[in-house]
Sequence to fold (137 residues):
Amino acid sequence: RWLFNQAVCTLYAFCGVLFGLCSLSSLTVLSAVCCLKVCYPAYGNKFSPCHAAVLLLCVWAYALLFAMAPLAKWGSYGPEPYGTACCITWKTSSREATVYILALFIFCYLLPGLLILISYSLILWTVQVSRRAVRQH
Fold:
């Protein structure tokens, strides 16, 4: 069972969601930047440390937005089904929590996953086209 009080449970779940979303968002941005540099070098070569800082701030803001939503009563944090840790309360019947979980699925899982898949597919396609061009040349 969870050994601490509800406040610690909420903090634990908040940190887990925040850092998990930061991780996935960072990987998504990294794949998009790699795609830009490989597939569109005219634009990718203009990427600067300032751009990286702005993207990093966007990643944290995006993750904070979704991690703080349960603190604003859009969804909730609570013990997991086995009670040994805390996370988002998945089994809930409120409309707000259902919408939050759906938004989390779409904007924090589905879209980043698709963007990563598209980015690396474009990179592979560009490398393959370049290889053919070099062979023919």
Notes: The longest helix spans residues 95-136. The mean pLDDT is 92.
